[in-house]
Design a protein that fits this description.
This protein is mainly alpha-helical and 981 residues long. It has 44 helices and 8 strands. Among the domains are: 139 residues, Rossmann fold (3-Layer(aba) Sandwich); 89 residues, Helicase, Ruva Protein, domain 3 (Orthogonal Bundle); 163 residues, no CATH class; 119 residues, Serine Threonine Protein Phosphatase 5, Tetratricopeptide repeat (Alpha Horseshoe), CATH 1.25.40. The strands form 2 sheets. A 5-stranded parallel sheet has the order 2-3-4-1-5, sandwiched between helices.
Length: 981
């Protein structure tokens, strides 16, 4: 047929498309060649109607318009023959005569409609001349190669879609009510504003007069409604929505139909190609830890069809399968995967029913079999598809548990604890219903749930669950069963996290004795429990006891497992950490250097454990004041991490963060800020704005802004962060509480101290309620509140709080715990602030603070030296300058001997909660400055200045001239000089 029909009189909208066609054909674009425009997309998207509407609006602009139906080659050839005959070519012998006529005439327009069959060589039927105009409508996007310009058609704009529906549904358009308009809008939205669906829905509503009932019918009988075409279509298109796509379905290869059937059970968007790639790679893996599965068996049969002989994905085979479906626009290809129009996806589900469901479940099982934290991008893309499968009533419980366990673990590893919890709760429910509450896998699932609750800060709930699990395990499996012993360890961990550390210690001591009796003293589990006990002793401030246990444990581990066993290497790392806590940082350094060399030799320089140990070594170098060496090591580590793991891997991002800390310690805070801003943007893009790591990086950035004197920006960031933290983690999560504390600190620095006080008082009440009044974090927050009260001049109130918190600290943590020693120091400082200097001195002397510090940490530990320095300052304030001088000189000598004369870290105490104590040494340079001040008080002006001048030179050399400490020393020198004059 060459006569061009007209568009339907109900044609609506599509003005953007018509404008594009007008500009393409009727402007000067490509004036010296034939213009070809492809309109492609799903059947029913309105391609033909748009082409016909264009010809109707602009028919005066063309010398002739021809309409060619291109569903068969015979039809195309017949149409060209008609063109020749209609235009007076009497001797036309073949269809090419029509092409010849077009070559010799200009400004004509051909509409080549329904050129859907990819087997028809359409380019053969296009005139090869430098003039003329062609519109092609097709479901096949591959025809873009033969067109000058193209546009994909799908859904209408909402306003247009509603208008089209109303035109077909309601005869009297002038009297449509507001309620009818609202219902029509909901129907149009439910049909995704897809043209053919809207036209047929409107016709059905008009015929049945059921506008207000249609949504219910659509919900209950969607397949029947969308399979039903109009009896007397106004545009002469008789096929229903589903019939239109069924015509395309019949043209597909069996393999294409099968893969579309698989995808029908997933979410319609962002189906990852890697799902099939990973499935093929894992074909040889065990199908499920829960027993044989028909789903995995079916999956293997299908995946073998797209696998090479080496059991890798046959990319060309999969490309052919998906290209076949895409040639009819039934599926769209996107970067790294595929997606469907929602209605097409629904049609597929209605068409294939439950066919291929088990196979796709089996493919997912195989794909997640070896999932790990490094697969976080795949995990992100797979999550909505797993959720669809998990929510299905027809899903195999074996499959749901197998997939769910792996996915929940991966969620937890990648910081998505809320998602892990949601999935684990469903898994436990399924396991209890199917296998029973006392089945081992049910108990294991409940344990995983408890771990996630702890991660989310819901430790009291975790504790209740762990206690219940322990009782069940004792009853079902026995007191000495390995699972019961593991559950006991988990209970101890929960107690420790709740600040009930003495109770945790008792549980762990009893557990260790049982483990020795049941498994033997040298069993790997017994050794692990020994390590856990050492960690708990460290948390209680009994660091020397912990060190002794770790020494013995390491020797046993070397003898039993070997010096290069992974567990032995981990224990060396733990021992080094304990040495660092005791201030024996040089010993820790030696141990870590040796460990790193062993790790490189045994595991390789690029193994994840080796990379982690490199980071630990860099941290120790920084603690020793060898910050430039630490920086160099971290920069090299970051490059390796980028190369081995990728620039956006979570571990690589963490190493970026560590690098910013080192830069800040060197006074290069602006560089650190720039890196943190870039890191935060990457974290948001890769992990998401609400990922735990992203939230932590936001806090780090706020702290850096505060250090740079930009507290208003820090405040804005922290306020937004706190709201996000409350929404994502809950108002009582430990991280949320910490962020509230940080916000209060920023308010204080902005002079908004009363607001800070109000926030801290509320925070303390929450902490007391959630964690308990004697939890270490609660005690730290009480101390912070005392600091704020002092800044408001309410020093007597602060004193009362500090006395209370010190007593609690002694009772809960013990006299020798580092936090107890710190709080003793703080109380003495408050007494001095109140002018009660003699009481402060007597207090320090009656509580042998310095001696305790030496006993617990060692006389050379940075904190011990801090306390000696503070005692010297107290003596100086009392006018006992000679005694103060003697103490300060001893501190300087020790500091130089341990860290060297250029170490920047000996006296300034970083005020952080010491739940996990680090080696935060005071600054050697600051000690020299304090000594200089004491000399000045003694009248030894020249000696004082002789100390300060080289100190400033060293500070510039080591820290840089713009470092805050360097600037402070310069200011102190000017004060001394003015004092001398």
């Amino acid at each position: 047929m060459t006569h061009c029909p007209t568009s339907a009189h109900t044609f609506t909208g599509r003005e953007e498309v018509l404008t594009t066609l007008e500009e393409f054909f009727l402007s000067g674009y490509a004036a010296e060649r034939m213009k070809t425009f492809l309109l492609y997309g799903l059947g029913g998207a309105g391609k033909t109607q748009i082409a016909l509407e264009f010809t109707k609006r602009f028919k005066q602009r063309f010398t002739a318009i021809f309409f060619i139906t291109a569903d068969q080659e015979d039809s195309i050839q017949g149409s060209y023959f008609d063109i020749a005959k209609t235009n007076g070519v009497q001797d036309a012998q073949s269809w090419q005569a029509g092409l010849h006529w077009l070559h010799s005439h200009e400004d004509w327009l051909i509409v080549i409609d329904n050129a859907d069959d990819p087997k028809i060589p359409l380019s053969k039927y296009l005139p090869s001349c430098d003039h003329g105009n062609v519109i092609i409508t097709s479901r096949n996007p591959d025809l873009r190669d033969i067109a000058n310009q193209n546009m994909e058609l799908s859904d209408m704009l909402p306003e247009e879609g509603i208008q089209l529906l109303v035109k077909h549904a309601i005869k009297d358009l002038h009297n449509i009510s507001e309620q009818q308009q609202k219902v029509a809008a909901k129907i149009a939205e439910e049909l995704y504003y897809f043209p053919l669906a809207l036209v047929h829905a409107g016709a059905y509503i008009n015929r049945q007069q059921c506008l207000f009932e249609y949504l219910d019918r659509l919900g209950n009988q969607r397949e029947q409604l969308l399979s039903k075409g109009p009896q007397q279509p106004k545009d002469k298109y008789y096929y229903s929505v589903y019939e239109t796509w069924n015509l395309s379905w019949l043209q597909l290869s069996p393999d294409s139909r099968m893969f579309l059937g698989l995808c029908a059970h997933l979410h319609y968007e962002h189906i990852p190609r890697s799902l099939f790639e990973r499935g093929v790679k894992n074909l040889s893996m065990v199908e499920s830890p829960l027993g044989p599965s028909r789903a995995v068996t079916e999956a293997k049969l299908i995946l073998q069809r797209i696998a090479t002989s080496e059991m890798n994905l046959d990319n060309m085979k999969l490309d052919d399968i998906m290209d076949d479906a895409a040639s009819y626009s039934l599926i769209n290809k996107e970067s790294g995967g595929y997606m469907f129009h929602p209605l097409v996806h629904q049609w597929l589900k209605d068409t294939i029913k439950d066919n291929h469901r088990q196979a796709i479940e089996g493919i997912v099982v195989l794909a997640v079999e070896d999932i790990s934290q490094k697969d976080y991008k795949f995990l992100q893309r797979l999550s909505p598809h797993v959720r669809i499968l998990q929510d299905s009533a027809n899903s195999d419980h074996v499959v749901r548990l197998a997939v769910g366990c792996r996915m929940a673990w991966a969620y937890g590893e990648s910081g998505r604890a809320n998602k892990a919890l949601e999935l684990q709760q469903k898994l436990v429910e399924i396991s209890e219903r199917v296998m029973g509450e006392e089945y081992p896998d049910t108990l294991s699932g409940s344990h995983n749930l408890a771990v996630t609750l702890r991660v989310l800060g819901r430790t009291n709930e975790a504790l209740v669950l762990e206690q219940s699990l322990l009782e069940t395990s004792k009853r079902v499996l026995g007191v000495d069963h390995p699972y019961t012993l593991n559950t006991t360890q988990n209970l101890a961990r929960a107690l420790g996290e709740l600040g009930r550390t003495n109770e945790a210690l008792e549980v762990e001591q009893s557990l260790l004795e049982t483990s020795k009796r049941v498994l033997g003293e040298e069993h790997p589990d017994t050794l692990n429990r020994t390590q856990n006990l050492a960690r708990t002793l460290g948390d209680l401030g009994r660091t020397h006891d912990a060190l002794e246990i770790e020494h013995n444990l390491l020797e046993t581990s070397k003898r039993v497992l070997g010096g290069e066993h992974p567990h032995t290497l981990d224990r060396i790392q733990n021992l080094a950490g304990t040495l660092g806590e005791l201030g024996r940082t040089n010993g820790a350094l030696e141990l870590k250097q040796s460990l790193l060399e062993t790790s490189k030799r045994v595991l390789g320089g690029e193994h994840p454990h080796t990379l982690n140990r490199t980071q630990n070594l860099a941290r120790t170098l920084g603690e020793l004041g060898r910050t430039n060496e630490a920086l160099e090591l971290e920069q090299s580590l970051l490059e390796t991490s980028k190369r081995v793991l990728g620039g956006e891997n979570p571990h690589t991002l963490n190493r970026n963060q560590n690098l910013t800390i080192t830069l800040k310690s060197l006074g290069r805070t602006n560089e650190a800020l720039e890196l943190e801003q870039s890191l935060l943007e990457t974290s948001k893009r890769v992990l998401g704005g609400e990922h735990l790591d992203t939230l932590n990086r936001t806090q780090n950035l706020a702290v850096t802004l505060r250090v740079l004197g930009r507290p208003n920006e820090a405040l804005e960031l922290e306020q937004s962060l706190l709201e996000t933290s409350k929404r994502v983690l809950g108002g009582e999560h430990p991280h949320t509480l910490n962020r509230t504390q940080n916000l209060a600190r920023t308010l204080g620095e902005l002079g908004r101290t009363n607001e800070a006080l109000e926030l801290e008082q509320s925070l303390l009440e929450t902490s007391q309620k959630v964690l308990g009044e004697e939890h270490p974090d609660t005690l730290s927050r009480t101390q912070n509140l005392a600091v704020t009260l002092k800044s408001l001049g309410r020093t007597n109130e602060a004193l009362g709080l500090e006395q209370s918190v010190l007593e609690a600290s002694k009772r809960v943590l013990g006299n020798e715990h580092l936090d107890t020693l710190d709080r003793t120091e703080n109380l003495a400082a408050t007494l001095e602030k109140l002018g009660r200097t003699n009481e402060a001195l007597k207090f320090k002397q009656s509580l042998p603070l310095v001696e305790q510090s030496k006993q617990v940490l060692g006389k050379d530990h940075g904190d011990s030296l801090t306390r000696i320095q503070n005692l010297a300052i107290t003596l100086r304030n009392l006018g006992r300058f000679h005694e103060a001088l003697q103490l300060q000189q001893s501190v300087i000598e020790i500091s130089k001997r341990i860290w060297g004369p250029e170490h920047p870290s000996t006296l300034i105490k970083i005020q952080i909660s010491k739940r996990v104590i680090g080696s935060d040494h005071p600054f050697t340079f600051r000690r020299i400055q304090n000594l200089s001040t004491t000399l000045a008080y003694l009248g030894w002006r020249n000696e004082s200045l002789e100390l300060m001048n080289p100190l400033i030179d060293k500070s510039i050399q080591v820290l840089g001239e713009n470092h805050p400490d360097t600037l402070y020393y310069i200011k102190s020198l000017k004060l001394l000089e003015s004092f001398s004059n």
